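Hello again, I could really use a second opinion on something today. For a while now I've been wondering how a particular protein folds. Please have a think about how the structure follows from the sequence. Here's the protein in full, and shout if anything looks odd to you:

***
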Amino acid sequence: MEDTGEMSAAEKGSLMHFVLQHLDFKGDVSEAGIRRQVSAMVAAGLLTEVQAHNVNIRRIEAFMGSNLGRRMANAEKLYRESPFTMEVKCSEVFGSMEDGDSGEETVVIQGIIDCWFEEEGKLVLVDYKTDYIPKGETEEIKERYRTQIEYYARALRQITGKDIKGKYIYLF
């Protein structure tokens, strides 16, 4: 990214994830508080001025004021940007293959879970999205990311041995 001040949609999505990874959810999450935290990220060399200018503070503030954001802030421990790797059968990912059965062959799936926390002994999974969704197309976005969220939940169950209480896609 050049220092023109303009960022692509993908860059803005990555920026939003980065800020949420470093944001103090238990701190001041008012608009002014988030601005101070973003300024501190610039001072620490985590963000450039151009990146800080492109952070959508109001959307973060709205998220933090949501029921889900408050639950995350109240969680005893919040896990962010958790990488995972797991093996799954080829047939599960690719279905039936024309060249014959894939048998017991496996593929490795890797991912990074945006956020998760424990609540009442079970896990809550949160995936942030910065996609634009036209009004009334909520079901389409759920379907678009259903497989991804299911793999994330499965990975968390395998890693922790705990059940999943909730799976959320938060659209910024």
